[in-house]
Amino acid sequence: MKNSKRLNIKNMIYQHILNNSKEYILVTLIFIVGIFSGVMFINNAQETQISEITTYLNKFVDTLKNTEQLNNMQLLKSTIFGNIVIAITLWFFGTTVIRNTSSFWSYII
Protein backbone atom coordinates (compact mmCIF):
# COMPACT_ATOMS: atom_id res chain seq x y z
CA MET A 1 0.00 0.00 0.00
CA LYS A 2 2.73 2.48 0.97
CA ASN A 3 4.85 1.49 -1.98
CA SER A 4 2.04 2.19 -4.45
CA LYS A 5 1.36 5.60 -2.86
CA ARG A 6 5.04 6.52 -3.07
CA LEU A 7 5.20 5.36 -6.66
CA ASN A 8 2.07 7.38 -7.48
CA ILE A 9 3.49 10.53 -5.82
CA LYS A 10 6.83 10.12 -7.59
CA ASN A 11 5.01 9.65 -10.88
CA MET A 12 2.90 12.78 -10.29
CA ILE A 13 6.02 14.83 -9.44
CA TYR A 14 7.80 13.52 -12.51
CA GLN A 15 4.83 14.39 -14.74
CA HIS A 16 4.59 17.85 -13.17
CA ILE A 17 8.27 18.52 -13.88
CA LEU A 18 7.90 17.27 -17.45
CA ASN A 19 4.79 19.41 -18.05
CA ASN A 20 6.43 22.52 -16.59
CA SER A 21 10.00 22.01 -17.74
CA LYS A 22 10.21 25.46 -19.36
CA GLU A 23 9.32 27.17 -16.09
CA TYR A 24 11.81 25.07 -14.13
CA ILE A 25 14.56 25.89 -16.63
CA LEU A 26 13.69 29.61 -16.48
CA VAL A 27 13.73 29.71 -12.68
CA THR A 28 17.01 27.79 -12.59
CA LEU A 29 18.58 30.21 -15.06
CA ILE A 30 17.39 33.22 -13.06
CA PHE A 31 18.84 31.65 -9.91
CA ILE A 32 22.20 31.03 -11.61
CA VAL A 33 22.27 34.59 -13.00
CA GLY A 34 21.56 35.91 -9.49
CA ILE A 35 24.42 33.91 -8.01
CA PHE A 36 26.74 34.99 -10.82
CA SER A 37 25.84 38.68 -10.45
CA GLY A 38 26.30 38.46 -6.66
CA VAL A 39 29.76 36.98 -7.11
CA MET A 40 30.64 39.67 -9.66
CA PHE A 41 29.40 42.37 -7.27
CA ILE A 42 31.54 41.06 -4.42
CA ASN A 43 34.61 40.64 -6.65
CA ASN A 44 34.29 44.19 -8.01
CA ALA A 45 33.38 45.84 -4.71
CA GLN A 46 35.73 48.32 -3.14
CA GLU A 47 37.35 47.75 0.23
CA THR A 48 34.87 49.98 2.10
CA GLN A 49 31.88 48.14 0.62
CA ILE A 50 33.39 44.76 1.53
CA SER A 51 34.00 45.91 5.10
CA GLU A 52 30.40 47.19 5.36
CA ILE A 53 29.02 43.88 4.08
CA THR A 54 31.23 41.94 6.48
CA THR A 55 30.17 44.14 9.40
CA TYR A 56 26.49 43.72 8.51
CA LEU A 57 26.77 39.94 8.30
CA ASN A 58 28.77 39.73 11.55
CA LYS A 59 26.19 41.85 13.40
CA PHE A 60 23.40 39.65 12.07
CA VAL A 61 25.13 36.46 13.21
CA ASP A 62 25.98 37.97 16.62
CA THR A 63 22.35 39.03 17.08
CA LEU A 64 21.21 35.47 16.37
CA LYS A 65 23.79 34.06 18.78
CA ASN A 66 22.90 36.48 21.59
CA THR A 67 19.15 36.03 21.33
CA GLU A 68 18.08 33.75 24.15
CA GLN A 69 14.82 32.61 22.63
CA LEU A 70 13.15 33.79 19.49
CA ASN A 71 9.50 34.70 19.76
CA ASN A 72 8.24 32.72 16.78
CA MET A 73 4.77 34.25 16.76
CA GLN A 74 6.12 37.81 16.83
CA LEU A 75 8.60 36.94 14.07
CA LEU A 76 5.79 35.45 11.97
CA LYS A 77 3.55 38.49 12.49
CA SER A 78 6.27 40.98 11.56
CA THR A 79 7.25 38.97 8.47
CA ILE A 80 3.65 38.68 7.26
CA PHE A 81 3.06 42.38 7.90
CA GLY A 82 6.20 43.34 5.98
CA ASN A 83 5.25 41.14 3.04
CA ILE A 84 1.68 42.48 2.99
CA VAL A 85 3.00 46.05 2.90
CA ILE A 86 5.27 45.19 -0.03
CA ALA A 87 2.45 43.37 -1.85
CA ILE A 88 0.03 46.29 -1.43
CA THR A 89 2.69 48.77 -2.56
CA LEU A 90 3.47 46.72 -5.67
CA TRP A 91 -0.24 46.30 -6.39
CA PHE A 92 -0.88 50.03 -6.02
CA PHE A 93 1.97 51.10 -8.28
CA GLY A 94 1.10 48.35 -10.74
CA THR A 95 -2.48 49.53 -11.04
CA THR A 96 -1.43 53.14 -11.50
CA VAL A 97 0.91 52.32 -14.37
CA ILE A 98 -0.93 49.50 -16.14
CA ARG A 99 -4.47 50.23 -17.20
CA ASN A 100 -6.84 49.24 -19.95
CA THR A 101 -5.80 51.81 -22.53
CA SER A 102 -8.42 50.76 -25.09
CA SER A 103 -11.25 51.91 -22.83
CA PHE A 104 -9.25 55.03 -21.97
CA TRP A 105 -8.85 56.03 -25.61
CA SER A 106 -12.44 55.19 -26.50
CA TYR A 107 -13.55 57.53 -23.72
CA ILE A 108 -11.28 60.33 -24.94
CA ILE A 109 -12.19 59.96 -28.64
The helix/strand class is mainly alpha
- Averaged pLDDT: 85
Instruction: Give the percentage of residues in beta strands.
Output: under 5%
State the distance separating the first and last CA atoms: 68 Å
Q: How do the helices and strands follow one another from N- to C-terminus?
A: HHHHH
- Tally of separate domains: 2
Which percent range fits the helix content? over 70%
Can you give keywords for this protein?
2 domains; mainly alpha; extended; 109 residues
Q: Can you describe this structure?
A:
The protein is mainly α and 109 residues long. The protein contains five helices and no strands. It folds into two domains: 1-68, no CATH class; 69-109.
Summarize the structure.
The chain is an all-alpha fold and 109 residues long.
Secondary structure elements and pairings:
Layout: H1 2-19, H2 21-44, H3 47-66, H4 72-97, H5 101-108
